[in-house]
């Protein structure tokens, strides 16, 4: 998430009332999670296990809960609770705006696009040409939709990320300030839900087709010309490359890459990266021919046991 203007390190420190290490005028241009940071961004870290990763990332400002040696060319924001203060910044730069009508005045809708009754179109939404948004769809704030897109009834674009920190008092939510971007020629089936990024974009690539009842988590990127069947659940921060096919009830854990041309057979449980142009099956999942051979061998076990004296 980029800020509307360049801020100084001192200004940001004042917003969250914390100490800082670095020049007062050190430039701050945005805030992002570690997988999408660029120079000028703030990244937060609150566990020693991840200090080095954050300090050596592309981010040039690190919001951290311990005063450590500051890498050259970077700055630190020292906070007793970086998670809380990251949320403070999100609230400041992405203030909640209540809806006053079904289609916000700030929404932009392209020529030839039809919005069916009772669809909700949020603040600053951009919808391209020749799209169809069916009744009951919810298009959240800042969503971007390309040309020739079909959104079926009950779809929610831009729900909050499922991202919580466990505390003694319960679960503390990381606020979402990112977007959903749907590229040209995409179709999204009824009652599917696509969460917006925490600070970046959740993206559905050009020409991809999504069935009903699909869940896609925050900051996940779906490539071009992918085919995803019903009841698939994809966690946050997953990268699905181009021309991937995912059949029904597949579950994919966070932070994995589904390589180009992968086919995931129904009910796969995907826990790690895949190889290009390879078909997988099962839980734990594996290359389909290998898994079928394993399954055939298991079926022979009762007969094998009978031969053991």
UniProtKB/TrEMBL annotation:
GO terms for molecular function: N-acyltransferase activity; UDP-3-O-[(3R)-3-hydroxyacyl]-glucosamine N-acyltransferase activity. InterPro entries: Hexapep, LpxD, Trimer_LpxA-like_sf, UDP_GlcNAc_AcTrfase_non-rep. Residues 25-91 form the UDP-3-O-[3-hydroxymyristoyl] glucosamine N-acyltransferase non-repeat region domain. It is an enzyme of class 2 (transferase). GO terms for biological process: lipid A biosynthetic process. It holds the Pfam family LpxD. One of its GO terms (cellular component) is membrane. This is UDP-3-O-(3-hydroxymyristoyl)glucosamine N-acyltransferase. Signal peptide: none annotated. Gene3D superfamilies: Hexapeptide repeat proteins, MurE/MurF, N-terminal domain. The keyword Membrane does not apply. The keyword Nucleus does not apply.
